[in-house]
Amino acid sequence: MKANLFILLLISLAIHGNAQIFHTKPKYIQLKVDLLDILDSYPRIGIGYEIKYSKISLWQSIHYGWDGISFDQNSRYFENEFTYWGIKTGLKRNIFDLDGEFFIGVQLAFDHTKAAMSDDVYYDLNGKSALLYDKADYLRDRVGLMVENGYEYFIGNRFSVEIGYGFGVRRIQNYYKNIENPFSLKDVEPVEIRNKTLYKYVGTLWRPAAIASIKFGYSFSSRIHE
Amino acid sequence: MRLKPRATFLFFLTLLFAIGIPSCGEDYVVFRDIKNVYILDREAGLYLGTPASTSSDSIALQIEIEFAQFSYNHNSIPGMMSEAWATSPSTPMLANEITDIRIFCDHAIYGIPPGENMAAVLNFGLDYYQATLHDFLQMLPRKGEYTYGIPPMEVYFNSKPDPGTYTFKVEIEDNNRHVFISSFPALEWL
Q1: Do residues B75 and B88 lie in contact, with contact meaning Cβ atoms separated by under 8 Å?
Q2: Counting beta carbons within 10 angstroms of the beta carbon of residue A109, is it exposed (0 to 12), middle (13 to 18) or buried (19 or more)?
Q3: What's the pLDDT tens digit per position in A97-126?
Q4: Among candidate residues B174, B101, B26, B178, the one with its CA nearest the CA of residue A183
Q5: Nearest residue of chain B to residue A184 (CA atoms)
Q6: C-alpha distances out from residue A141 to A82, A144, A203, B75, Å
Q7: From the DSSP assignment, how many helices (H) and strands (E) are in chain A?
Q8: Which residues pair with B168 in a beta bridge?
Q9: Do residues B78 and B150 touch, judged by C-beta distance below 8 A?
Q10: Which of B73, B95, B178 sits opposite A130 (nearest CB)?
Q11: Are A107 and A89 in contact (CB under 8 A)?
């Protein structure tokens, strides 16, 4: 009995799956809004587009954040103002399912952050020194290469919700400008490089990174043939 | 030997506290500036204001150093008791050290012309003993040592100079060539 039910389920899946593939347009474009990063240390919102072909997708998005959209009033990453902008691009391999599609892919990301800091310190990893300051502008450039996977759940013919996660590596370059009342200390190195306070380390860092995203999608045209 | 449940509980509780909970504290401490220079009448045991007036034979300048700690190491698990238990933060490491102390006066004193460094003819100490500048500098904590700072340093004037008003300036230099300059305490010797 159980075996029969299982076979029936497989047939049902095959029919619906084929139906989905059969009816989906070979190419359509989605608008996507990424909202999960609003919970990040430097909160931001992403908006982009995705061109979907039958099996693969190409996507791009731009991301912008500022202190005004932060929920965390006690963030250890910034005390005053900050701005963040970034761009991401990626390629996905889509595997259709009954209600949506699984995907695996790669993404390349670049972002730039500028944050006003006060009464803190940074370590120059190359010069092996530390510098205390009253005020300074912290600047960060990051390039990341990630592999990701996830699932995009379709709601009707136009809307979708995509949940994804991934891992990769980031090259982080930290530097400071407009330093007020600097107090330099030679031959002082960080006791350890702590992930929670990466802004304190001036120089280039390579770090493993994890990403997650929740994207809301809208298709400009019906994604399946009427 | 069979351990009783209560003893076992107390044993593991003791072990937990003995091992310790990740605490929070600062990595480094630095000499950052001169916070204050007070004039101390050592005969009367009184702090004098500035400008001060005294006939005492034994005067000291008491130098209070401003320290700064940095790189807060916050090791805690949100929602746990680690912060409450973190009663013993690690002692910070000194990131600089004092290499010279210079004392200047606007009048000739002890045979030193006005405006020249007179540290060589004075004694220095931390309340309970006196030493030459060289020996005193050797006694101060060095870069890399673990400390929270030092008590106020004292510069001793062990004999009364000619009557008059003397204005002092204190300069302290660290190993990074930062020079900390004090305010200018004035003393009228009667």
Answers
A1: no
A2: buried
A3: 878 899 999 999 999 999 999 999 999 998
A4: B178
A5: B176
A6: 14, 10, 11, 27
A7: 1, 9
A8: B105
A9: no
A10: B95
A11: yes
A158: helix, strand or coil:
coil
**What does the block give as tokens for A97?**
């399912």
The predicted complex's ipTM stands at 0.78
Looking at the complex, report in whole angstroms how far the Cα of residue A189 sits from the nearest Cα belonging to chain B: 9
Q: In the structure encoding, which two tokens stand for residue B104, read together?
A: 């200047």
Instruction: Measure A132 CA to nearest chain B CA, in Å.
Output: 8
Q: How far is B47 from chain A (nearest CA, A)?
A: 32
Residue B51 preceded by cis peptide, ω within 30:
yes
d(CA B26, CA B147): 11
Residue corresponding to tokens 């904590």:
B141
Q: Which residues of A touch B70 (CB under 8 A)?
A: 120-121, 130, 132
Residue B12 sits at φ, ψ, to 5 deg, of: -70, -35
R_g over Cα of chain A = 23
Strand ranges, E, within A97-200? 100-124, 129-155, 159-180, 183-186
Give the residue among A130, A132, A133 at the shortest CA–CA distance from A188. Answer: A130
pLDDT block averages, 10 residues each, chain B of length 190: 73 66 78 93 86 87 93 62 61 94 93 94 87 94 92 91 91 96 87
Q: Of all helices (H) and strands (E), which one includes residue A92?
A: strand A82-96
Evaluated on CA atoms B178, B179, B183, B189, the torsion sign reads: positive
The residue behind tokens 């003995």 is B18
Read off the pTM.
Answer: 0.78
Task: Test A186 with B176 for CB contact under 8 angstroms.
Answer: yes
Cα separation, B93 vs A192, in Å, equals 13
What pLDDT is stored for residue B22 in this prediction? 58
Query: CA torsion sign, A98 to A100 to A107 to A195?
Result: negative
**Polymer length of chain B:** 190
Kindly identify which residue of chain B lies nearest to residue A191, measuring between CA atoms.
B27
Cβ–Cβ below 8 Å for B70 and A184 = no
Query: How far is C-alpha B42 from the chain's CA centre?
Result: 19
Distances in whole angstroms, Cα of residue B163 to Cα of each of A95, A203, B84, B95, B190: 96, 59, 58, 42, 5
CB A132 within 8 A of CB A183: yes
If residue B181 lies in a helix (H) or strand (E), which one and from where to where?
A: strand B179-181
